[in-house]
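ESCALATION

Customer reports they have been waiting on this structure for their group meeting. Please prioritize. Original submission:
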Amino acid sequence: MNLLNKFLLPPEKTAHAVEVDKIFNFINVSSLILLAGIVVAILYFVIKYRRKSENDMPPVIRENVKLEITWTVVPMILVFFIFGWGFQSFMKIHTPPDNTYEIHVTGQQWLWRFTYPNGATSTGDLHVPVNRPVKLIMESNDVIHSFFVPDFRIKQDVLPNRYTELWFNVKETGESDLFCAEYCGTGHSDMTGKVIAQSEDDFQNWLASAKSPQKNSNMSPAEYGKQLVQQNACLTCHSLDGSEKVGPTWKGLWGRTVTLSNGNTLKADADYIHESIVDPKAKVVEGFNPVMPSFKGQLNDDQINAIIQFIKQQ
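Update from on-call: job pushed to the front of the queue and completed.
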C-alpha cells in the first residue's frame, strides 16, 4: 500500500482492491495537478491583468481557436482514458474465473447467512480460503440489502426474488469488516459481520466443524442454546439487559404475560417461544413490527428447546 492509500483508504486485501486503488489514485493525482494549474493561472491573471486605474480599459478579446480546442480535447482524452481503464477493471471484477469456490449468501433483516457447498452454515461471519477465488451467489429474503467489504473494494446489491453475484481472491489471512450498505430498516446499522480469511488447511478444518453445529457432551442445554443464539445472530434484534431493540427483550421474558398486537395476552411459555421461532408472524408483540424471519427448517426441535432453556435463564 502506498502512502496516499494509507491515509485515504482501508488496507488492500484483494487484487480487486489494488486495481481499484490505482484508478482512484490516478484520478486524485490528476485532479490535484489540474487544480494546481488552474489556481496558479488564476492568480497569475489576477495579478498581471488587474485594473491599474479608473481609465484602464481592457482590450477586446477575440476567440482563440487553438486554445479552445486544446482545453476541450485534452480533458476529453483524459476522460476516455479513465473510462477505458475503469471499464477493463469493471470487467475483471465482474467476470469470475471458472474454478471459483461458490458460497450462497442470504441477506435478511438484519443479518447475513452463508451456506457452503458441504452444507455448513455460518451467520454474520463469512469464512473464506486465501489465494483461492471465491464467488458469492446472493439473494435477499425481504428487502434490498448491499454486501460491502471496504478492504476488498467490493459492493453489490442483494435483491429479493433475484440472484446477484460477485467474486474476490483474498491475498492474506485475517479479518475484514462486512457491512450492509443499503438502508434496510431499523436494524440496518447492526447488520454487520466479518470476512475471515484462513489458510486452506484452517478453512477445511473449520468447514468440517461447522457442517452441523453439535452440542458438546459437556454442555448443558442452556449453554448449547447460548451457542445457537450466537451462531444465528439472535442478539442482533433481542437484548438480554432489558434494552429495547428491533424485537422484544429476553430479560425476564419467561413466564411473563405478553400483550400482542391484536390486544390479546398470553403467557411466555415453551409453546409460545417455539411458535415465535418457527412462525414469528403468528403472534406479534404489541409495539413491534412483524419483521423476524422464520427459522423453520433451519433449527430442529432439540436446538429450539436449547434456545428456550437459554431464554429461561435471562
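Sent to customer with the following note: The longest strand covers residues 101-108.
Escalation resolved.
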